[in-house]
Amino acid sequence: MIVRRFRSNRRSEPPSGGRKGHDGGVLRQALLAASRSGRVRNLITHAPGTREVVRRFVAGRSLDSALVVAEGLVSSGLRVSLDHLGEDTADRAQADHMREVCIRALGALADAGLTAGAEISLKLSSLGQALGPDGNRIALENAAKVCSAAGGHGTTVTLDMEDHTTTDATLSVLRELRADFPWVGAVLQAYLHRTPADCQDLAYAGSRVRLCKGAYREPAGVAHQDPHEVDRSYVRCLRILMAGQGYPMVASHDPRMLAIAAELAARAGRNPGDFEYQMLYGVRPDEQRRLAASGETVRVYVPFGEEWYGYLMRRLAERPANVAFFVRALLSRG
Ligand SMILES: Cc1cc2nc3c(=O)[nH]c(=O)nc-3n(C[C@H](O)[C@H](O)[C@H](O)COP(=O)(O)OP(=O)(O)OC[C@H]3O[C@@H](n4cnc5c(N)ncnc54)[C@H](O)[C@@H]3O)c2cc1C
Description:
binds flavin-adenine dinucleotide; alpha/beta; disordered N terminus; globular; 8-stranded parallel β-sheet
């Protein structure tokens, strides 16, 4: 029933919105390709007006500025997952440095009395996962230290999911971490063909699972390319997670996904505290507040730090309107 209604809504959707439609798809692919280009990176990071766009999606360059944002969100009834930006860690020293920044962030959240409402998100690549054959072990060791600090401060950690070449490795690190820290959150990406099966595996009691559509450029062999298929997969995965024993974290700004999640949660007899919504800092803030005011648990993903480039490009790729905002900001300074 839900899927049938959802399909008919789909047909009435204008082809130019979000990732839908051919033009949006081409733009998205181009922006995701640009996110790996050194030349484009140089151009964008030095363009006048960039700072204004970054400010919309990133809570600041320093931990202090991120804490101010986190404090504001928590005091308005939202929860937070703080993310120290960085994904191209090139050596062991940098990986260890990233670990220490996360541990410092956790200490700062505790000092500010925010750990009841704020956790952190971790990218294993920032903790060394891509550092050759030992990368996974290095990332696991670093992540375990971060989790130990988080546990000590009474809060949690969620492992972000990156491109599909890392999915198995990240899930294996998750399994190892959960042996000591069962509250570590997982992220699954609905665009991957494998994800419904991963949802089944992770829908057990106590298992925190963030479901998102997926933000990377992936080949057709591993991921749905058609946004309608991604949405159908998202619903399939939601059904599994909501009917399971775990704690689903519905990470989407898509009004249809949010409505379907609410309906599936109600059917499964879940109350507001039995699952949560998650959205990105700077995206649909009014909806974040509206949901929280209606009694739902809503967590805002709050990125901070100097390494904002890859994150910003993924946000622009998701929505042509964000690109227009960017171009306007550039022109107004040009
Ligand atoms: C908390 C969180 C954590 C995430 N973690 C990861 C991760 O670990 N790995 C990963 O690959 N991806 C992650 N993502 C990103 C995710 O995969 C998507 O790329 C991103 O959320 C966009 O997908 P969407 O579900 O919002 O839907 P989209 O298909 O991008 O958007 C659908 C609709 O949502 C509405 N919408 C979207 N953006 C806006 C906007 N700016 N203003 C107004 N309306 C808007 C519009 O109605 C739009 O048509 C995360 C997302 C969130 C929210």
